[in-house]
Amino acid sequence: MTDYGAQGKNRTYNAIDLNNCKNHQSYYTALSRGTSAEGTIILQGLDPWKITSGISGYLRQEFRELDTLDEITKLRYDGHFPESLVGLTRNELLRSYKCWKRNSPQTLLPKSTQADSWRQIVRPRKALPPQKPATAPSHVDVASQAPPPQVEDLAAMKVVLSDPAGLKWDSTDYSCVYDAVFTILWNMWTENPSEWSLLLANNGAPMSLLIAHFLRSAQELESLESGRDTVRRLLHELQPDYFPYGKEGAVFSDLAEILSNDCDISCTTRRCLSCGDETGTGRHALHSCHTILPQVGADADYLLSDYMKTLSCHQTTAICERCHSNFPLWEFTSFKNIPSLFTVCSYDNHLLFDPLLSLWKGGEAFQLRLCGIIYLAGFHFTARIIRQDKKVWFHDGIDTGSCLQREADLDTSQRPDRLRAAYGKPAIGAIYCLDL
Ligand SMILES: [Zn+2]
């Protein structure tokens, strides 16, 4: 009998074959059919990795979203749910709720239950020699934040910071996700400090603070790690559950969301091709920090640009209410904002990241350039940095530290297959920036 077929059954003597079980869910189903440990017989062996390797980012997000949906339900029940919040789909509802929550005074907000219910246990990695630079204090008082960059400072920055650099891993307060993301942003920022400081000025407090510290690092007033720790402190104060200290890691999607000016960048309209009737749906297909879930039924690789094309135009099953034509309505998506930074969190192994993305807005073409990819496996994040000159660099806060490892240049004429993984770790996200 399969684990699927065994669901709901109780067995006094439960003989199970765990070797052929696919994942922890199957283990659970098979084991929990037995009524006692004495009556449980495990045939052959078992793979402990399947039940000790930790929770996937996808599952973690799922649990957290269920918590948030609970909050929404409670607010609705108590009559406190703001009428302005809309969302036809789960994703839209969650997003508009998170946006509202972020911008509302603390007193209005429901107490989050997450910290009590869920806690990620991170397995310790093998011991490594401490790599923290002696000059970098691990916790800097946020009150002593660097002042925002002044125009004069930026104008004075004629120095070309051509050598790519990265951040060293903090073995006390695991920092790999910050190291990966900040290394990508630092190498993007140093290519045009004045332009990027202006473009990212409205991306929220954490990004402004990061840019201010980039400026200090560029002037050699402090190390990149010291700036990282200050930004980290602010993130922890804003969202302690998402940005913990110690050996608990943060995840890329949370960091990407808080650093990007999280907004809708496209809007969707429905059009009847028979009578020409057109209505806005209020639905936003793309966000400046966009999550791509596994595509149902897809078993072949596809490019991010293909994914965006399918969003831009597709047939629905809805029928026109005006002319009741037999032909279902079409949905069209167009860009209303071109983000200076576009982050993608991918939960689909088939997704490949294009080196360049072309977006159209009001007849004008804009290009977004892939400036970095985030990799994750075994609870450790690494990154590839792709610079304007198409040179590719690899960064691992533990192995390469403040130096980056040069790789073969990016060949834009080929499918970007080689970027999908780095030294055994799959890509889980990418950062695109306006091609200045
Ligand atoms: Zn019609």
Secondary-structure topology with pairs:
Blueprint: H1 3-6, E1 14-17, H2 24-31, E2 40-43, H3 49-52, H4 57-77, H5 90-103, H6 114-117, H7 151-156, H8 176-189, H9 193-199, H10 205-218, H11 224-238, H12 252-259, E3 266-271, E4 278-280, E5 289-292, E6 302-303, H13 304-312, E7 313-315, E8 330-335, E9 341-346, E10 351-352, E11 356-361, E12 364-377, E13 380-386, E14 392-395, E15 405-407, E16 421-422, E17 425-434
Helix pairs in contact: 10-11
This protein binds zinc ion (ZN).
Structure summary:
With 436 residues, the protein is of the alpha+beta class.
Q: Which descriptors would you attach to this protein?
A:
globular, 29% helix, USP domain-containing protein, alpha+beta, 17 strands, 436 residues, binds zinc ion, four-stranded antiparallel sheet, 13 helices, nine-stranded mixed sheet
Question: What do these coordinates show?
Answer:
The chain has 436 residues and is of the alpha+beta class. Among the domains are: 50 residues, no CATH class; 61 residues, no CATH class. The strands form 4 sheets. Strands 5, 9, 11, 12, 13, 14, 15, 16 and 17 form a 9-stranded mixed beta sheet that branches. A 4-stranded antiparallel beta sheet has the order 4-3-8-7. The chain has a two-stranded parallel sheet with strand order 1-2. Strand 12 and strand 13 form a beta hairpin. It is globular. About 6% of the residues have low confidence. The site of zinc ion has 8 residues, from loops. This is USP domain-containing protein.
